[in-house]
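Board notes (copied after class):
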Amino acid sequence: MSKVASGKIKKSSAKILDEFNASVMFDKELYLEDIEGSIAHVKMLLKQGIIDENAKTNIISGLNKIQKEIETDEYIFDIKDEDIHMSIENRLTTLIGDDAKRMHTARSRNDQVALDFRLFVLRKNAEIAQLLFGLEKVLLEIEKEHTDTLLPGMTHLQHAQPINFSYHLLAYSSMFKRDIQRFENSMKRNSISPIGCAALAGTPYQTDREYEAKLLGFSSVSINCLDTVSDRDFALEMLFNISVLVMHISRLSEEIILWSSSEFGFVELSDEYSTSSSIMPQKKNPDVPELLRGKTGRVYGNLISLLTVMKGLPLAYNKDMQEDKEGVFDSVKTACISIKILTEALKTMSIKKEAMLDATKKGHLSATDLADYLTSKCGYTFRDAYKLTGEIVGYADDKGKDMSELNLQELKKFEPKIKEDVIDILKLYNSMNARDSQGGTSVNSTKKQIEYFEEWLDKRG
């Protein structure tokens, strides 16, 4: 309760304490959840005979008016109201009188804030998952066009084996699929209503928590009230889920930054999603992926901040927990705009197929294929084949050639058993297509992966 409303506290708060203690200037974000929660609560109170029909009607009518005032910017948020709950209750009292004071029967601000915050988090889980569906669809459209676009696959940022561009992007499709599943699983796991737990120990009123939970769309009610009012696992889960998501976005952004540089030249960002230098007119900077990469730090910070707030709190509710919301609000906003802008940047990004192809001709990407050939066709153990292939790589370097460009005579100098069929095996496109195992990079396997994601997205609408 606010200090002024308490019988224990006789004096008004110091002005500086009002500023320090109040949360209304940021938790006003929860106005809709607070109003919806209160409407469900008074419907339950009427059903249980705790208030009468007239009080319920007056309260709901007043709450609907307050919602309109907030959404049309007519509402005045006053820091003296301390939080969104008291702000709305005080305004409701002004509008309808004493009936407003019945609204808080059989609940506490402890379970009220737990309800509002949980509803907000559940809705934002759904919103972020939906935005990720849009991102997945854009990736899928790019992937369909580039199943035979050769690209150097890398490990340690060194050229390793030839892959196709679709296959590379499908790795990110897989990451974002896991992100969607995490948000969906969190929604299911945390669809638990806290309302009715009151301050910490339940209420002596004969309430119907199941009815109220159903009105609000929850799957069930919480089991233990002491845990419920001090539980912020659902918020921590969201912060973790967003942290993993922005890590994935950051990894893709890093690759776009590299790919758009002169050294790679694999992609070009559209003018709409690039910036220029203040003094160098020739430059086109990848500011969008750089900002996406940079946002990761603040999101990680929000997760660590709430973990630190919660780590030493005794049961049940403590005022420390007022620090639970701003970081979540910030991370949700960051995640939503990051997904939206990445989606648009990918839609308008140009793919430079020739540059990718040229890059595959550096680094002897089919070296492993030669080692496998020596093992399967010439009787070598793999380790001996590996050693001989290394010698051939050195020879190709000395000649200024890629291994795939060596002719049969050159290869026979190292092993007479090598036959003409090796030439086709060392061709980069054939090397890529040879990896036809499940989940591999061949065009056939890549198309199967694309079909999988198409079906997966279709099932979820």
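Comment from the instructor: The two ends are 45 Å apart (CA to CA). The first strand starts at residue 150 and ends at 155.
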